[in-house]
Amino acid sequence: MLHMVRFIKKRQNIIFPFLDIALNVVNYFFQLYLSWNLLPQQYGTINSLLSFSAILFVLGISFQTLTAKKVSSGHYSADTFKSIYLSTLYFLLPILLGTLILAKPIVRFLRSDYVSLLFLIVIFAFNLYLSIFRGIFQGNHQYLHLNISFYIETFVKLIAIFWLFSYRKNVHIALISILLGMVFSFFYGFLTNSKMKKFISVDHSIKTSVRQIFNQSISIYIANFFIYFFTSIDMLIINYFLPQVSGIYAVIQKYSQLILATSFSIITVFIPTFSANYNDKIKLRSIVKKAFLLFALLSLIALLGYYFILPYTVSIFFSTKYEEAANYLFFSCIAYIFLVSCFLAINVFIVLEKKRYLLYLLITSVFMLLLFLLHHESILSIIFIQILCYLLMFIFLIARLTKELKE
């Protein structure tokens, strides 16, 4: 038994993606259950809310990346940990204040209500501090703890939705279930990390101020903001301009996000490896090439699956009322392949602490948003705009990354 435990711990980085992908299959059932129990327009609304929350979650993802980078590079102590926590306030308070001030237009844009927005704010706060604990797991290569954290969140969420939907079925109940999953996972992270003595003992040779942490986190936050902007804005646009097909588009997005979830699982494992080889450009360049080759192989498999297999599963999994979504899965797959390839490049830039690439993200987001506002006649027009924008962004990012790795 002890031998098996040691075997698993030594191969956590290999086991993590498989467990994370398996969890995404379980998590996918949460979406299926929502689609079965909510009206199509309600299902579109909840996915619009989740897309908005994904943009808010950028802060948590950013601090997870920053914490993982600090831990994996060895520049970590209790002082740093406290500084990371305190620096979150520089972001958290303005975001909360801005959300409250703009509550009315936000609610109108999301076609929702103030109670749902309140739930999103509370979920956002828990996610932020939970993400820091996950950053410690990730940076310390404790991928099994990271898996457990995600599994707790997902299974508590599922248990809660099964139980609460037996009494009432609406958007608020779905958000409460998500919140409960986040809360339980937060306490697991808190209790587990409080026992890690090496993070509690203060290393007085490392004095990282809150302001320094804040400055380091800005570029990571901006990069992650664009990442989640790209994965959320399409759902928000559809829900606002084409609410009658928002449920159909939500199903398309759920299928496309299978590519996203798989890619993020792999990138999570690569980030500490990138960081550990930060000063060795030759070795880093070799690892980055292998990562892109792996993504190319997975992209080919995804294209085959989304063309020949997955369209036939829509009516089986989501029921016949969503079967129109099958017509768009292959095109959405193409868009997301370019997008996740961009995400891989972005994470290499984050490790290299380069910032010029952010201009490409800004230009792409503005260009895409402008095209969305001008051409939102149908689902197909939205997807074609995504393909065009993500392809152009990928070309510019790869050109820039190639130059950075050669210097």
Strand content: under 5%
Overall radius of gyration: 21 Å
Q: Low-confidence stretches at least 5 residues in length (pLDDT < 50)?
A: 195-207
How many strands, what sense, and barrel or not for the largest sheet? none
Tell me the number of strands.
0
**How many structural units, i.e. domains?**
1
Rounded average pLDDT: 86
Q: How helix-rich are the residues, as a percent range?
A: over 70%
Main location: membrane
Transmembrane segments: 12-30, 42-63, 84-102, 114-132, 144-165, 171-191, 218-238, 258-279, 291-309, 329-350, 357-374, 380-399
Keywords: Cell membrane, Membrane, Transmembrane, Transmembrane helix
Organism: Clostridium manihotivorum
Q: What would you note in describing this structure?
A:
The chain is mostly helical. The chain has one domain. The protein has helices at 2-10, 12-37, 40-56, 58-73, 78-101, 103-110, 114-139, 143-165, 171-194, 197-200, 210-241, 246-276, 281-308, 314-318, 329-352, 357-374, 379-406. Helix 3 (40-56) runs parallel beside helix 12 and helix 4 (58-73) packs parallel to helix 12 (246-276).
List the helices and strands and how they pair.
Elements: H1 2-10, H2 12-37, H3 40-56, H4 58-73, H5 78-101, H6 103-110, H7 114-139, H8 143-165, H9 171-194, H10 197-200, H11 210-241, H12 246-276, H13 281-308, H14 314-318, H15 329-352, H16 357-374, H17 379-406
List keywords for this structure.
17 helices; 407 residues; single chain; 0% strand; mainly alpha
Gist of the model:
This protein has helices at residues 2-10, 12-37, 40-56, 58-73, 78-101, 103-110, 114-139, 143-165, 171-194, 197-200, 210-241, 246-276, 281-308, 314-318, 329-352, 357-374, 379-406. With 407 residues, the protein is mainly α. The chain has one domain (12-406).
